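Good morning N.,

You mentioned wanting to compare the apo and holo forms, so I went ahead and generated the holo version with NAP. This is what I fed in:
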Amino acid sequence: MLDNDGTLGVLGCGTVGEAIVRGLIRSGSLAPARLSVSTRRTEAAEALAAKHGVRATVDNLSVAREASAVLVSLKPQQLQGVLDAEEMRAALRGKLVLSTAAGVRLEQIRRWLPESPLIRAMPNTPCTIGEGMTIVSRGPLATDAHVRTAVRLFQTVGRCIELEEKSMDVVTALNSSGPAFAYLIIEALAEGGVMMGLRRDVAMEIAAQMLHGSARMVLQTGMHPAALKDQVTTPAGCTIAGLLTLEDGRIRSVLARAVEEATRVASRLGQS
Ligand SMILES: NC(=O)c1ccc[n+]([C@@H]2O[C@H](COP(=O)([O-])OP(=O)(O)OC[C@H]3O[C@@H](n4cnc5c(N)ncnc54)[C@H](OP(=O)(O)O)[C@@H]3O)[C@@H](O)[C@H]2O)c1
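and this is what came out, ligand included:
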């Protein structure tokens, strides 16, 4: 993934950073010795070192200096404070920098790191269990080889595709807020099961596995969801009864508008 004995640095190794670290180690893509990570708190760094066997520190500059590429998974409001400094610019000059910060545009990062090839990435929390989805966009200095490195990195924790940066606000909504929408749907369907007499834990397991299996059907068969839906829907049956109830509640436009509204808010994130 990285040149010969290159090291990946992770600045801000929290939920997203740790998911990637875990994915890289589990897939055998990078040995722990080739990972170096930073956090704000010493105890967080110690915990990461103990758990994953990586070098972990609160010294961002040392991570940036020794790495051949850097994943920046700091919170959006922490990015400028860490990156916009002369020593950091020098440490990262010519090195691939991948940022997962929601709402922080490549143009902003370019002002802080004008000589680094940049890639913006939008992962989601299922990356934590290797079932994530990540969208990457390239900045001005990023080559096809840099994009391939980024895609391979995020493929260790799920699927990854490249899109133009203009799609980042909608993918922030659909991909990164999306799991919250899915959890709400799982919870609501399980409540229906509880209402009709199922134990809550049983209803939750059925609802979650049902949604998981249905999503995999769409991905693996490549069939349109409407065609898969029609396969389940027998005339005068219970499925059509449930579907019409959902349509009465305007479920399609509610879900689509949720993505539209979240995209609107995402477009304002990171813009001070
Ligand atoms: N979570 C998601 O679903 C998701 C999805 C897409 C994109 N993102 C983006 O990914 C980024 C990270 O999100 P997250 O959920 O992983 O956040 P997080 O769990 O809060 O992790 C942030 C990490 O940054 C560290 N940190 C804070 N200030 C620092 C500093 N000055 N120097 C070094 N490390 C510092 C924190 O260390 P301490 O723990 O010691 O404070 C923590 O390890 C955000 O920009 C977010 O917008 C997140």
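The first helix runs from residue 15 to 26.

Happy to go through it together on a call whenever suits you.

Best,
F.
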